[in-house]
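Following up on my earlier thread - several people asked me to post the actual chain instead of describing it. Fair enough. Here it is, all 107 residues.
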Amino acid sequence: MKNSKNEQYFEAFWPRSPRQTQVKPLARRLDTLNGKTVAQLWDFIFRGDEVFALLEEGLKARFPDIRFVSWREIGNTHGAEERQTVASLPRRLKELEVDAVISGMGC
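Reply from S.P.:
Thanks for posting it. Predicted structure:
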């Protein structure tokens, strides 16, 4: 479409759709990690085996009664089994009586 000054006029549409989800409140923070069970979730991408070992050591020094559910028990949160692993997380975390999660690593 042209206007009277021989310039072109184009209509454009914003390609982004309206937001589909609403912001939800965060879960209440734990007062302490003593006596709590913490699950480790790992995508098997960047040295999580090393990082989680160091995190366990440091957290056990601060919170002697903390318990961990290893990433080995949960499975890979990325890759071929990702859908099944992530879909089963709520059930697994409840079965294992998990109070908190550390999720990592990415690249």
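The chain has a mean pLDDT of 84. That should answer part of your original question.
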